[in-house]
Every structure is written in C-alpha cells, then in structure tokens.
Prior knowledge:
- The protein is 84% helix and 0% strand.
- By secondary structure, the protein is an all-alpha fold.
- It is globular and about 65 Å long.
- 43% of the residues are buried.
Amino acid sequence: MPHRPSNAAHTIISGTSIIVFTQVLSALLSFVTYRIIQSTFTKEENGEFFWIQQVGAFVMTCFVEAGMTTIATGIAVREPENEAAIISTLFKLRFVLWCAGTFILMALCFWYGWDLTIPMMLWAVHLFLSGKIALLRSVLEIRRRARSNQLLPSLAMLLDSVLLVVLVWMDARHLTTLTVMGWLVLSALPGFVWMLLLDKNWHILRAPFEVPWAKALWQASMPVFVVVLLQQGHTIADTMVLDYFGTKIDVGIYAAAYRLVAPTLVFVVALATAMFPTIAAFSVGDVERSRSYILQGVKLVVLFAIGFAMTASAALPWLIHLSSGALYMDNQKEFFFFVWAIVPSFVVTFLLTINTAISWQRRNYSIFGTLFLTTIVADFILIPPYHVIGAIASKALACTLAAAIAFKVLAEYCGTKAVVNLIMRSLLLIGGAIGEALFLPTIASTLACFLLTIPIFVLLVIVTGFVGKREIDIARSFVRSIRTQS
C-alpha cells in the first residue's frame, strides 16, 4: 500500500509552515514600519524610542512572561481536562504580574525622565495586547496552539503588523514617540479582541483562579526564567550601558543599525523551526541521519549569514537609505561593523533551537551564560571609550564566544572531527568574505561592488570546499523526508 501520512505529522508540518510564513511576512512589514519611523525621527528621538522598547520588553519578558506560556501549553496538551483551569489561572496571574511590571516601569521612567512615563505606559499596554512578548494574548491562543492549530493566532499577529503599517504611514509627517506608541496600542487591539471572542475564550476566563495551578506554573517556569533573564540581559545591556556612557543619539544610531540586520534572523528561526520536527524524530530512531542534517543546517546558516553580510556591505549606502532614509548616511562605519558582528549570532540562534530538538536544552545554559557575562564585561570595557562601535564590538565578541560554546556542544553530538572541519572551512570563508568587503569598495563603485559580490561569494564557497556533492545529496534527502512526513 502507498504510504499515507499520519494526521499528527501533517498537522505539525502544516502548523510549522504557517508560523514560518507569517514570521517572514511580519518581519517584512515591521521593516517597512520602522523605515517610516526612522526616516521621520531624529537620531535622538529614535534612541529614546528604542530605549523605551528595550526596557519595557526586558521587564515584561523576564518578570511577566517568564516562560509560563510554554509550560501552560505543555500541560494543556498532556491534561486537556484541566485546560480551562490552566488558561483562566494563567490569564489572571499574568494580569497581576503585568500590573506589577507596569508599576516598575512607571517608577523607573519617573526617576529617569518623567516625559517618558506616558509613552512607556502605552508600550506596556501594547505588549499586554499584542502577540510579541507572549503576555495576555498568548494565553488566549493556548487552546489552538496546543492542538498545532496555528492559522488564526498567526493571522491575528499578521493583522497587528498590517494595521501598524497603515496607521504609521497615514501619520508619517507628524510622528512622535507618543503617537507611535498610541498607534502600536490601536494596531494590537483588534487581534486581541478577536482571540478573546474566538473559541469562547471569554467563557473560559470566568473559571476560578486556582492557587495550586498558579504555584505549579511558577515553579515549573523557574528553569526557563533563568534562561530568559540571561538572554534578555544580554539583549538590553548594550542599550543601557551605551545610554549611560553616551547619548540618546548614540542609542539612535545603534538602534538604526540593529533594525537593519535584526529581520534577517527570521530566516534562521524559520529554518530551525522547519528542521525541528525532522531532527527531533531522527534523534531518536536514526542518530546518524540527524547528525548529518544538523551539520548541513549549520552550513546553510553560515552561508546565509556570510552571503547577507557580503551583499549588505557592498550595497550599504542603498540599504541605509532603504531602512532609515538619508539621516544615517554618515554612519556607514557603524552599519558595516554591525552587519559583520551579527554573523556569529546566526549560528548561536540556530544551534539553541537544535539543542532543544535533540533534548539537549540544558546545554543552552552555558551558551546563554556566556552571552550574558561576556556582554556585561565587554560593555563596560569597550563602550565608554568607543560608544557605538564599542557596543557593536561587545555584541560581536559575546556572540563569537557563545558560538564557540555552541560548537563545543555540537561536537559532543556530531563528532569532533566533523565539527572542527566545519569550523575551519567557516573561518576560511569568513576571512575571504571580510577581505573582499574591505578591499572591493576601495577600487569599485557601489553598483560594481554589488554586481561582483555574488560571483565572488560563489567562488569563495567553491575554493574553500564549503559545499560539495555530498552536501547537495543530504539536502535532497532532507527535502524528501519533509515531503514524506507531510
């Protein structure tokens, strides 16, 4: 009989495809939104706006979300009879924590600068309503996500992005930090109401608050809380230290460079998400195959990261104008360094997800710890004398050391010889790519650099032996396995 895929496998693959598609589309819409904002704001206004976003996201992610959504979803999958109690309890617990987190943010803004209080309050409300930081809306999505029914929650998140682009575009000439925060709240409101009314979630929330479930969620989320705290601490440290030793203008330049490269990480997340079910399945029944797929996945990530960095370096003036207008054309040096500083973070992001797929998520503690500690130390050493360049150098150093730890963990699973070979070829490729990015602009125009980048990149890949027939065969095998599961 011909092979008939199971409903569970089909649902997982379908749900993964929806998540990947909406993430990519949302990233593109976000890029357009921030292009409008950054071309309107001054560098100082952009720095203030970025500071509010980073500080608010840090407090809400660490002390309100704290990984409890993932824990609650897992319980809902294992114990469907307790689903209503879990959702109702988590919703009410999170509302109380959100109120406490908002109070902390208000107190911080009142001490730091009272004029930031109202924008910060609106940002907290936006996080409360939207699906970005997984606060209240994520609780309303638990029933569907527990069944891998991703379509409507993903569409609600996409609706947020579409509405925000429209609202910001309509008010482009009069944007301020306050009005942008107001548009963020309005753009998230329809999606929140939609998820509240969907599946009779409103009736579920009327279930009583159960203290035992609240304690169970809090205790189970503690290991995740540690990881979230380290991750968010690494993310926010550059902004806070740069703001302390520099100015809001420095933060604005850093923010513009960050927003140019950050959307590209969606590719890595999408790839890891797509590979997750297959690698997880083979890690139990066919370990050798899972090792091959992981190594090829890392190679693909390295190729994408270096290809992006080379192309972005060649077309940097165009990309700066595309992402933030002419205001940042005198900051090409900072943008160039950020484009290359982000390369090791691609590998780190991918391997963190893969470690979870093979049930090695405890090894991620050492990676996050390295990111956090290196960032804190490097920030206080490099940012005071070098400001924006120092912050970018600190990020590059932290991500590079974290990538080294991630490769060490990878070597334990895939074998030292294979991983060392991958590292050496990656370093050769990166060295050649950086040399090209530094030398070519000195002898050619931007257009010529852009046109020459792709053939030079292909030549470097061939010369370093980074991709060969074996890699192509493994990639084809992986695609076939995806089709078999779907």
